[in-house]
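Supplementary Text 2. Reproducibility record for the structural model of the 108-residue chain.

All settings were left at their defaults, and a single model was retained for analysis rather than an ensemble. We include the record here because the model underlies the residue-level annotations in Supplementary Table 4.
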Amino acid sequence: MPSITLYTSESYRFDGESCAKFSTALAGLAQEILKAKHNNIHISYLIAEIGFGTPIYFEARLRQELFRTADLMEEFMQQVDVLIKEMTGVSARIRCFSFDASNIYGKN
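Retained model, structure tokens:
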């Protein structure tokens, strides 16, 4: 973990090069700030019909860790906000959800 999903309207969809650039930068933030292991980061992009709200919605789900304090999570969200604004010019809605390891079940 983390599992990150970026929902965008069609008009804010990343092209292949932008997607690769954003993915690399985002994975770097997850490794640097969240101390996520490279092989545990998952990033998905979904094109959505946005009925109301911002055209970009960022959601991260991650394992709760003692070192992932409120200040650290705030720093991560701030850096994600900067990255999204640089790439798109949009202030995205950003949400992070952390889960206790005993509540996470997964395979692969």
